[in-house]
Amino acid sequence: MEKTLNISMWQKRLEDFAKERDWDQFHNPKNLAMALSVESSELVEIFQWLSSEQSENLDEKSLENTTHEMADILLYLIRLSSKLNIDLEDALEKKFEINKSKYPVELARGTAKKYSELKSE
Amino acid sequence: MEKTLNISMWQKRLEDFAKERDWDQFHNPKNLAMALSVESSELVEIFQWLSSEQSENLDEKSLENTTHEMADILLYLIRLSSKLNIDLEDALEKKFEINKSKYPVELARGTAKKYSELKSE
Amino acid sequence: MEKTLNISMWQKRLEDFAKERDWDQFHNPKNLAMALSVESSELVEIFQWLSSEQSENLDEKSLENTTHEMADILLYLIRLSSKLNIDLEDALEKKFEINKSKYPVELARGTAKKYSELKSE
Amino acid sequence: MEKTLNISMWQKRLEDFAKERDWDQFHNPKNLAMALSVESSELVEIFQWLSSEQSENLDEKSLENTTHEMADILLYLIRLSSKLNIDLEDALEKKFEINKSKYPVELARGTAKKYSELKSE
Q1: What Pfam families does UniProt report for this protein, alphabetically (chains A, B, C, D) (predicted)?
Q2: Close Cβ partners of A98 (under 8 Å, ≥ 6 residues apart)
Q3: Which of D2, D48, D58, D95 to mutate: most C Cβ within 10 Å?
């Protein structure tokens, strides 16, 4: 079954959530970017002492925490897109094209080098 | 017009992108969480020396950079959801309910206090 | 040979550095905290695709980059201590005591659990 | 009075702290970099909803939290320097020279532009 996310609905829900709490005063893009990065570090915290292998086999509690942190990141991302009037689908399309040209298959295969170092080989 | 994001399609695109480059060896959840947090700091970097007011009135170049960084965050989020078999829509629904109960309107109105400090008033 | 760091001298150097560039207008604690976290993500970026083992055997270039990023973090930390009039040595002493009591040897040995979960066993 | 930090002593204290808890197995550079970035986001969290002005006038509780988070960052930085055999004083000297040449007074005065954009004017 195809999974889709109704971005417009979530933008509206988060606008209402903030309005009801009079939080627009705090939700400028600078602060939202900070909050998003704090949530992404809470995601990192779950994994910081795990080995790579352990991170592929999370216990139930860690998987639930991971799911919650990912949701918080996505909520702030949608909120920020709403504030800045950014079309997320369009943003994905454009950035995905950029990433494909930054990391051409023939140069990037099997290496984790940054694109700026791929060129110089 | 309603904006929706086809998560299944993007999961598939990113799986193919990684497979073609033989990057699955790098894409364990631990590393993906790190990469996501690095992208979110690149977002923060755009705003670090701006005032709150300036962050609401980005010039064209900064807005484009912001759009790119948000896309990278979302790409890693979708990739991680694919690796951990997490349903993002469902995750949003559950976390949004939690956030509503952590921040009841009557207690949270007009304050940026953390939920753990709201209770103690 | 004992290594010491002259904090007062570095605080002064960084004050002069900012003053000469008229950067005090940007260096409020909020912005400095953001900048410090951006630098620490640049540190993380070096390690994001490395295995734990590889991170213990950095090549010369990666070790140099690591050294530079660690220096930037420390420079912002000293700058922030100067702005907030925080005594770093005293801060270390106090936090080290807290960490020792949060992680008693008998409970913490061999486990990476967070202190809040150690108690509940 | 001149403030100095005895780095060698703190490196030794942290080595003993880890050894007593059998934590060397977790303390590879990759994991330490992650932990350091998580602490720096805990620092950011204190400031995320504050205005710049408020961040210059922290209440007692926030200042104490800030001090604790800065200490944790510094503890991980010292721990990492010990693991990688990095001389922090020397690292500061070298990076400070680099920063001075990246941001020459005449070009950087009064602007928060990144060095890579200063050149192009």
Answers
A1: MazG-like
A2: B68
A3: D95
